[in-house]
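Shipment paperwork, digital attachment
Item: protein structure file
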Amino acid sequence: MFDADEEAVFLAQNAEEAEDSGWADLALFVDGEAGEEARRLNQPLLARVAHIVLELADIRRPVEVTLLVQGDEGLRALNRDFRGKDVATDVLSFPALDEPLVDAPADEVWQDFTKPEVRFITAPGLPLQLGDVAISYPTAIRQAAEAGHSALHEFVFLLAHGILHLIGFDDQTEAGYQRMVALQNATLSQMGID
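Attachment content:
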């Protein structure tokens, strides 16, 4: 996915952080439809992305995130089945939480949610399951080329976006959109990705 020289330099600069992603655990699943190149995604690096974006959002507790990397048809099927939109997309988020975890103004968080009568409870001592993020590998590559930046930049931007949705941010308002983009850009900056 990433240019070999670009990834080698990035990983060398961030080797220590990539080895220990802190309290953000990321499980990576790459579907065969995503292509052979997608199988080379670096799980410790992506876990570090999760750690950084959560830290920037002031979430500092043990959490788990699942990342599914698929092709365009996989994301199209998820988008159709869960959102009623029969089109491919770049990233989807499926929060496991009942309400926003992030402490943010009301116009920056989920706009349509109701607290259930019976809430999901995480057992003491276990990480909080935030939910699932699905990214279309081919779409990330195309969008990077169209935007004129690296595939690494695009993939990190999309992963950060998906994780922000898991913790309660919503880009359906201008304030929410601006906050999410600022946090995504701060994640790129903190990781040293141009």
